[in-house]
Amino acid sequence: MMEKKKERRHLERFEIPGAQIMYKQGKGFRLFDRYIGPLPLKDITKNGACIEINQPVDRGTLLDIEINIPGHKKVHVKGHVVWTSYPEEPTHAGVQFMPYGEGKKYNSFDSRMQLEHLTQQYLESKN
Fold first, then answer.
1. pTM for the whole thing?
2. Which of 25, 54, 118, 124 is most deeply buried (CB count within 10 A of its CB)?
3. Alpha-carbon gap, residue 32 to 49, rounded angstroms
């Protein structure tokens, strides 16, 4: 019998009906790099997300993610892949978002505020 992994998340993840993501990977994102997607967003918090991916990615890969939510402004975040379900189909990846701050190595405070607003909206409607 398989032992269940201990849950290490501090924040409750939530689903957003109809939400999709587009992503690109690499170290130096360029404006002309193409996004891959749209693909389903499985669940999210302000610190990370579980996303569907259509090609294998290695743990540690940096992703630039655009989250499209019906009726909301797009959310742009960067994060590192911390796990992947490959070779399962569909393949999912757990992404830990970069810290929030100013500069290229950070996610914007605006994206944090958007994610906090979504957290309140969708967790309250869930309870």
1. 0.83
2. 118
3. 25
